[in-house]
């Protein structure tokens, strides 16, 4: 597995086959967000979009806490340690932090989350921007901003009610309620629970499955899952779904997939 030159001190970015692995690396601060971490994540998501050899990404973290959200010790008046590169980037991409946290301009390919330990505040907010989620058996989730007099600006009050039952989402964002891995599984917040220390390994298994599929189909289905939800009337959603499906069925990959099925062999997809 090769580390890429877009890594930063607090965000390690590696490539393993067709999968980008993004690792939050600030364990001494419970992986709380800082500018160097956000810079790395922003670069990772843009690389995922731009590199046709990549099909998905895994987001994970070093240490026994996935992420404690914003670094409250640094704000509102503290030194956040922003580098010149980060400040220059903000001059041209003002919402770079929201792109990093998957609120804005999410990459067009699937994102897999691997959580060990606590995922609180921004740690659960970024979860809602991913597509497939693995949690260790001791993982804990919660949107705790309200307890600090803050607003969950990365989108939890919007996304969580669309992803899990409304009352559960309200309990999380209004009361700052923590939930266990088992509750998160039952509510539909995560996909799978694994033994402690195995979240990344399980996420890699998911990534391996994704990387066997057709790249064009994968991107189109990902768009459909994210964009055509219950706020769009079913008839309109079906028409938009047909628009996504058309280019996929007209592709060389679609023909290759059907041919491979007929010939009882693995498909050789090229993204064309």
From TrEMBL:
* An example molecular function term from Gene Ontology annotations: enoyl-CoA hydratase activity
* UniProt entry keywords in alphabetical sequence: Coiled coil, Lipid metabolism, Lyase
List, alphabetically, the CDD domains matched: crotonase-like (cd06558)
- One GO process term, biological-process aspect: fatty acid beta-oxidation
Residues in coiled coil: 218-245
SUPFAM superfamilies per record: ClpP/crotonase (SSF52096)
EC annotation? Answer: 4.2.1.17
Family stated for the protein in its record: Belongs to the enoyl-CoA hydratase/isomerase family.
- The protein here is known as Enoyl-CoA hydratase
């Amino acid at each position: 597995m090769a580390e890429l030159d877009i890594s930063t001190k607090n965000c390690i970015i590696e490539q393993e086959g067709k999968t980008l692995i993004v690792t939050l690396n600030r364990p001494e601060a419970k992986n709380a967000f800082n500018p160097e971490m956000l810079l790395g994540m922003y670069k990772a998501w843009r690389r995922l979009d731009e590199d046709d050899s990549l099909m998905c990404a895994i987001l994970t973290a070093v240490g026994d806490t996935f992420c404690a959200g914003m670094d409250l010790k640094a704000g509102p008046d503290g030194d956040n340690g922003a580098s010149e590169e980060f400040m220059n980037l903000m001059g041209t991409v003002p919402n770079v932090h929201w792109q990093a946290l998957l609120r804005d301009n999410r990459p067009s390919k699937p994102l897999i989350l691997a959580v060990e330990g606590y995922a609180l505040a921004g740690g659960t907010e970024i979860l809602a921007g991913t597509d497939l989620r693995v949690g260790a058996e001791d993982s804990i989730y919660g949107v705790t901003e309200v307890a600090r007099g803050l607003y969950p600006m990365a989108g939890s009050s919007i996304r969580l009610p669309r992803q899990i039952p409304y009352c559960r989402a309200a309990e999380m964002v209004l009361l700052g309620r923590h939930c266990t891995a088992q509750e998160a599984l039952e509510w539909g917040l995560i996909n799978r629970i694994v033994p402690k220390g195995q979240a990344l390994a399980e996420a890699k298994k998911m990534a391996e499955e994704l990387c066997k599929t057709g790249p064009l189909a994968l991107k189109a289905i990902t768009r459909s899952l994210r964009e055509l939800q219950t706020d769009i009337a079913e008839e309109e959603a079906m028409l938009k779904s047909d628009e996504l499906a058309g280019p996929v069925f007209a592709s060389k990959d679609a023909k290759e997939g059907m041919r491979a099925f007929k010939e009882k062999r693995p498909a050789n997809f090229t993204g064309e």
